[in-house]
């Protein structure tokens, strides 16, 4: 058998745990023709000129053991054999053995500029060396500069910024603001929405998986304007009538506010039906309430067509919350509102120790600069549209795909076992995620087909040289692929993702 010719720069130096054929490169330019003809064609990952340094830390098994012993027992993990990711560069991640993965999940829609983007890293390191933390009781230009830059991205009179540490914290503050400003308690939210896991946000979240058995009062969950499974299809105005009914029959006629994501992230990349938000905003304001846009996942150009998800619906909220993409991985969140609403917090002392930390705000400001400099919103639109078209084309080939939806680089693929009944393909979703990641999934299958050691080894090499696609899952039934990669994603990456998905589905 001829030797494989390894393309330079495709493989990182192996760790001390790597052995033999498992360290084979991702790319092969020649394979013995007599064997190649019998090997299924696997997609080839795009070339990327970066190799991480060798990893000498603890193994995945050792980390998992510590995690089970010392960390939150409620934390789950993807995959039967959890990944130990030790390095990242732009849209790629690397495990302990130097294997490369295409990150199509982006740390749950968090990494927008790319992993370890040099300009973001430089801003963080420079500020850390100069001043890591003081307090907002003193002056520091980073928080003021970032606040100004963030306010410039907002429409209307949304010009006052409150910095937080997460999306949950931002939404908690927004709900508090609405209640203080209106002097009313009732909040309206949408079924299938997710807004956090603290007291008020857990109440406004309408998915049982994320709700503990504690007192949750003053929140009314209305019909989800789900264009795929909803009772009114894409007629947003019909769904909006349920909000009117809730206000009329479930409240005093006055509400504090309404909170919604323009595209439900945890809920399975479900974009609200057209016409829904304008109608609901009108009803809420007529009842004296404020409209809160949860942009934790859909903000910062991810949807491509607009910088904020709510802009696609032609509305201007009273309060906007954000996190995730705001810091490219830094623990940072924010609430932006009007001066009038912001004054509602001045009757008491509202303080946040780390909200506006110099390192975090320096990183956030760098993110805004990179988004503009590299035109990443436009890239999200261009590449996202291309990717969505390619995903839609798979529906003609694979019956398991029930729906493809979303905007820009916030896309969802819902899997079903029956298109007519829309039966959730929960088991199949997990299986495909494993296949797309790549694992020792072919061994038994191959040994039953051939006794040729050469054939067997080529399959192993190809398996470990390709696949390597990481996606998320969501939706109420856990049957939706969540595709939210870094915004530096390319058309070549999109092709590879779709080809891997196609290949994996073809093997089912």
From TrEMBL:
Which organism's genome codes for this protein?
Answer: Cuscuta australis
Gene3D superfamilies associated with the record: Aspartate Aminotransferase, domain 1, Type I PLP-dependent aspartate aminotransferase-like (Major domain)
**Would you tell me the Gene Ontology cellular component terms?**
mitochondrion
Question: Which CDD domains does the entry link to?
Answer: OAT_like
Q: This chain belongs to which protein, by name?
A: alanine--glyoxylate transaminase
Is Translocase tagged as a keyword?
A: no
Which cofactors?
A: pyridoxal 5'-phosphate
Assigned EC number: 2.6.1.44
Lineage runs: Eukaryota, Viridiplantae, Streptophyta, Embryophyta, Tracheophyta
InterPro entries assigned to the protein according to its UniProt record, in alphabetical order: Aminotrans_3, Aminotrans_3_PPA_site, PyrdxlP-dep_Trfase, PyrdxlP-dep_Trfase_major, PyrdxlP-dep_Trfase_small
């Amino acid at each position: 058998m001829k030797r494989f010719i390894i393309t330079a720069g495709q493989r990182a130096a192996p760790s001390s745990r790597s052995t033999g054929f498992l360290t084979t490169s991702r790319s092969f330019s020649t394979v013995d023709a007599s064997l190649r003809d019998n090997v299924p064609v696997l997609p080839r990952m795009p070339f990327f000129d970066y190799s991480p340094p060798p990893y000498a830390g603890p193994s995945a098994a050792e980390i998992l053991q510590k995690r089970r012993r010392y960390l939150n027992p409620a934390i789950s993990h993807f995959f039967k054999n959890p990944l130990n990711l030790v390095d990242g560069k732009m849209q790629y991640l690397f495990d302990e053995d130097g294997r490369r993965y295409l990150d199509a999940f982006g740390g749950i829609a968090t990494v927008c500029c790319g992993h370890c983007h040099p300009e973001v890293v430089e801003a963080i390191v420079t500020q850390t060396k100069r001043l890591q933390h003081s307090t907002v009781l003193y002056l520091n230009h980073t928080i003021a500069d970032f606040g100004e830059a963030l306010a410039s991205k907002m429409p209307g009179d949304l010009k006052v910024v409150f910095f937080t540490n997460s999306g949950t914290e931002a939404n908690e503050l927004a709900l508090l603001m609405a209640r203080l400003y209106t002097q009313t308690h009732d909040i309206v939210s949408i079924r299938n929405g997710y807004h956090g896991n603290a007291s008020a946000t857990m109440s406004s979240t309408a998915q049982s998986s994320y709700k503990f058995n504690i007192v949750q009062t003053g929140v009314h969950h209305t019909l989800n304007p789900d264009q795929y499974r909803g009772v009114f299809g894409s007629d947003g105005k019909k769904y909006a009538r349920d909000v009117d009914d809730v206000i009329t029959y479930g409240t005093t006629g006055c509400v504090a506010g309404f909170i919604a994501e323009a595209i439900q992230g945890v809920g399975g990349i479900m974009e609200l039906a057209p016409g829904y938000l304008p109608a609901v905003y009108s009803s809420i304001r007529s009842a004296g309430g404020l409209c809160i846009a949860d942009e934790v996942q859909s903000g910062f150009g991810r949807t491509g067509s607009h910088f904020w998800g709510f802009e696609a619906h032609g509305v201007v909220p009273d309060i906007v919350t954000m996190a995730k993409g705001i810091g490219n991985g830094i623990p940072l969140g924010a609430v932006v509102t009007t001066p009038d609403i912001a004054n509602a917090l001045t009757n008491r002392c509202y303080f946040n120790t780390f909200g506006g930390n110099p390192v975090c705000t320096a990183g956030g400001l760098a993110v805004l600069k990179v988004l503009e400099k590299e035109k990443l919103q436009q890239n999200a639109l261009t590449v996202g549209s291309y990717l969505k078209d390619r995903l839609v084309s798979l529906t003609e080939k694979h019956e398991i795909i029930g729906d493809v939806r979303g905007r820009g680089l916030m896309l969802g693929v819902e899997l079903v076992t029956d298109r007519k009944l829309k039966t959730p393909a929960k088991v199949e979703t997990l299986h495909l995620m494993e296949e797309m990641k790549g694992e020792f999934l072919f061994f038994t299958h191959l040994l039953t087909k051939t006794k040729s050691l050469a054939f067997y080894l080529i399959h192993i090499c190809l398996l470990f040289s390709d696949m390597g696609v990481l996606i998320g899952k969501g939706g109420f039934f856990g049957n939706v692929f969540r595709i939210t990669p870094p915004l530096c994603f390319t058309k070549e990456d999109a092709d590879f993702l779709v080809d891997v998905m196609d290949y994996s589905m073809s093997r089912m």
